[in-house]
Amino acid sequence: MMRPPIILLKDGTENKQGKGQIISNINACMVVADSVRTTLGPRGLDKLIVDSKGATTISNDGATILRLLDIVFPAASTMVDIARSQDAEVGDGTTSVVILAAEILKQMKPFIEDGVHPQLLIRAIGKACDMTLKELANLEIKINGETELRDMLVKCAATTLSSKLVSQERMFFANMIVDAVNTLDAHLPLNMIGIKKVNGGNLNNAITAATEAACLVLSIDQTVKNVRTPSGGTMPGLPGQ
To answer: Residue 139: pLDDT band by 50, 70, 90 thresholds?
Structure first.
C-alpha cells in the first residue's frame, strides 16, 4: 500500500476549501480583470504603474500590466498565467482573454452559491466551448487570391494597432508589418523579424529592409549613413547610402 505524499508548507500557510473559498477565488479573479478592463479597445485608457522600487510604467497592454501587478492571491495569479499564455501563443488579445475568463466565472458564481457542483459547471462550459467553435466555423470567410489575402492581413494588423501609440499611422505600419511577415517562409519564424530603432526622424521615416539575417523594421533619421545587420553586413535601401 502506497503512503500518501508528504507536503511541506511554509509556516503560516492555510488550507481553505469549500463553497466559500470558491466564491472568494472568483471574486479575486474579477478584481484582476477589472484592473485591465478599462484598457480594452481603441478608446482604452493607459495605466500608470509604480512598483516597489519607484519605477513607473505607462501601458495599456494587458500582459504588461498584469505582469507588473503584485498579486499574492493564488487564484488571481491564474489570470496572469492566462494573459502570458495568450501573449506567447497569439501575441495579442491578452486583455480580452482575461476579461472573458472573468466574465465566465462571474456567470458561474450564482450557481456555486446555489450549491451546484463545480464539475457540472466545468462540463457545461466544455459543451458551450464546442458549440462556440462550431458557430465560428459557420462564420468563417473564404479568401480568394493573394490580393484579397493581403487586404485581410492589413486590416487585421491595423485593428491590433488601433489602441497603440502609433494608431494615427496604423495603416502605414500595418502594411509594413504584412511586408515583413511575407518575407518569412511557411513556418513563420517570427524571431527572424527584428525591430531596430535609430534616434531622429518621425514615424513616416520607418522602413522595411530585407537582409540575409532578418527583415528589420526601422525608424530612421534621414541623416543616417550606415546601419549594420546582425550578421555584420550593411543594410541596403537606407536613405543617405
So the answer is: confident
